Every structure is written in structure tokens, then in C-alpha cells.
């Protein structure tokens, strides 16, 4: 791993255009030198409308955002909420606002996905319309349906963990579910929630790195005691080592900043996190 100064911050690259397995183009957020994209989870900005969150995420210098279900759209769409029930013109309005602010949507979640294929397909159709990389979920009970649709739509399914005692707090639970399944099934590694559960996130990632598809990135004051989110690089989690481990195993997904503190005025902290991740990317390139 090349070691460079973490004080050096670097601007985003221009958005890239990738292609799905069937040849369809898919917009992707700007990748860092290390090969991952830096995004803002809109849950960090849940006190604001989606259109406001897009403006704020763009101001941080991030390359993309991760959408979540139920956020009010705002603007001309008022209290209409983001999700599978949106009208086509609302979906296009979101896409247009992202383009205006030079951001890409990357993931959608955390979203419940039912076993019934016709209902689950609605989530994948929305993801396809917005050219998403993946869907973040905890619906491990819908595994068969998710595997089928992930392969069909060429979209990653990223299983997320909340803290103990929720169903997926233990990474082994997810591993047992996805082991031997389609490569599009993997983890949305929420390292802060693992720390809250008393797990060392670096040790977890060392075990599961080949199946990490995305991150909800956080830093914490402690691994063994509950603590709030704080700007990346100011806590005890070794973010650079965690990302390096994933990159060693081919990780090329989104690292989404989910900052669950100081809800109404956390933009400076989120911007600080973006800068830290850019420095990490240069360090790891």
C-alpha cells in the first residue's frame, strides 16, 4: 500500500459511463484513484427534502448519493415521497436534478423487498430507471427472488447490517445466506453498526472482503461501547485499512457516508468525511 499524506485532498474525476452485461449504458459516479466512488447516504440528510439533499451532497464534493425510501421530494413535488410509487415524471425529475448537480444515484436503501416476484420487481424497475449500481436491503428471507432479479437486471443486492440484536447484526448470518449464490449478492458493510455490536470492523472485512459490494462508512470513538458517529479519521476505526482490504479483493463499489448525528447541521462533518475519503483514495491508489 502506497503511503501518502492524508492532508492532500484531491478533486473528483469526471463522471464515467459504464455498461451492464446486456450492453445497456449505466451512469456511474466519479471513481477515485483507488477505484471506489464516494457518495452521501441521503439518510444523513433526512431532515431535508431529497432535492435539498442533492444540493447539499453536491456541495460536499461527493460523486454520488444513496437514496432511501420515503424521503420527501420537495420542490414542485412537495410532500411526494421517493419510492416505487412515484409517477414517471417524478422519477425523471429526480434524475434531472441529479444531472443538474453533477451527481449520480448509486444505491437505493435500506429498503424492504418482498418474496413475491411481481412486488420485488418494482424495486428493480425503479433501480434500472435510475441506472443504479445496487439495492441495499435486509430482506434475507427473499433471497431466491433477489438472486433471480439481481442476475436479470445486472444490479447488485447489498445486504445491510444494523446493530445487535437485529436479525443481520452478525455477518455470518449474511454469509450463510449468500455463500455459493450469484456474485451480485453481497454485503453493504456498515462498519459503525458492527462496532456498536462489539465487532472489530477490520477483522470482519478481512473475512468477507470478496463479497463486499458497498459500504455505509462511519467512524466511532469505540469498538466495544456504543458511541455516536464522528468525522472519518477522528475515531478508532482504521478506515484506510478497511478499504484497502476490500480493494485487495476487487472492490469497486460505492462508499456511502452515513452520518447519523447533528442531523440539522451536519454538512461540515459530511464534507470533512468526503475529504478524508479522497485522501484515503490517493493513499491507496
- The CATH architecture assignment turns out to be Alpha-Beta Barrel
Helical run tally: 9
Give the overall shape, derived from the CA principal axes: globular
Number of domains: 1
Q: CATH topology, what is it called?
A: TIM Barrel
End-to-end distance: 8 Å
Question: What is the residue-mean pLDDT, rounded to a whole number?
Answer: 91
Description:
- The chain is built from nine helices and ten strands.
- It starts with 15 loop residues before the first strand and ends with a helix.
- Helices cover 34% and strands 16% of the residues.
- The chain has a single domain, classed as Alpha-Beta Barrel (TIM Barrel).
- Helix 5 links the parallel strand 7 and strand 8.
- Strands 3-4-5-6-7-8-9-10 form an eight-stranded parallel β-barrel, surrounded by six helices. A two-stranded antiparallel sheet has the order 1-2.
- With 285 residues, it is α/β, with parallel strands linked by helices.
- It is globular, with a radius of gyration of 17 Å.
Task: Provide a concise account of the structure shown.
It is built from nine helices and ten strands.
Comma- or semicolon-separated keywords:
single chain; 285 residues; alpha/beta; TIM Barrel; eight-stranded parallel beta barrel; two-stranded antiparallel sheet; 9 helices; 34% helix; disordered N terminus
Amino acid at each position: 500500500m502506497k503511503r501518502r499524506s492524508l492532508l492532500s485532498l484531491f478533486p473528483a474525476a469526471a463522471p464515467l459511463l459504464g455498461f451492464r452485461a446486456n450492453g445497456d449504458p449505466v451512469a456511474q459516479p466519479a471513481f477515485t484513484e483507488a477505484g471506489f466512488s464516494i457518495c452521501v447516504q441521503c439518510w444523513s440528510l433526512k431532515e431535508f427534502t431529497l432535492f435539498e439533499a442533492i444540493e447539499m451532497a453536491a456541495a460536499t464534493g461527493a460523486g454520488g448519493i444513496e437514496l432511501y425510501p420515503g424521503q420527501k421530494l420537495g420542490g414542485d413535488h412537495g410532500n411526494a415521497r421517493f419510492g416505487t410509487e412515484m409517477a414517471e415524471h417524478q422519477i425523471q425529475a429526480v434524475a434531472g436534478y441529479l444531472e443538474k448537480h453533477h451527481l449520480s444515484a448509486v444505491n437505493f436503501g435500506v429498503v424492504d423487498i418482498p418474496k413475491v416476484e411481481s412486488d420485488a420487481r418494482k424495486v428493480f424497475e425503479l433501480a434500472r430507471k435510475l441506472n443504479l449500481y445496487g439495492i441495499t436491503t435486509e430482506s434475507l428471507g427473499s433471497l431466491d427472488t433477489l438472486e433471480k432479479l439481481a442476475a436479470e437486471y445486472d444490479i447488485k443486492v447489498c445486504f445491510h447490517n444494523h446493530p445487535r440484536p437485529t436479525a443481520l447484526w452478525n455477518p455470518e448470518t449474511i454469509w450463510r445466506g449468500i455463500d455459493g449464490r450469484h456474485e451480485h449478492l453481497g454485503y453493504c458493510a456498515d462498519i459503525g453498526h458492527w462496532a456498536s455490536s462489539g465487532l472489530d470492523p477490520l477483522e470482519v472485512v478481512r473475512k468477507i472482503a470478496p463479497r463486499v459490494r458497498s459500504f455505509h462508512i462511519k467512524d466511532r470513538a469505540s469498538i466495544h461501547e456504543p458511541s455516536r458517529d464522528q468525522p472519518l479519521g477522528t475515531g478508532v476505526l482504521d478506515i484506510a485499512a478497511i478499504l484497502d482490504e476490500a480493494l485487495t479483493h476487487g472492490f469497486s463499489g460505492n462508499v456511502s457516508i452515513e452520518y447519523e448525528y447533528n442531523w440539522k447541521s451536519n454538512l461540515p462533518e459530511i464534507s470533512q468525511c468526503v475529504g478524508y475519503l479522497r485522501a484515503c483514495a490517493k493513499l491507496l491508489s
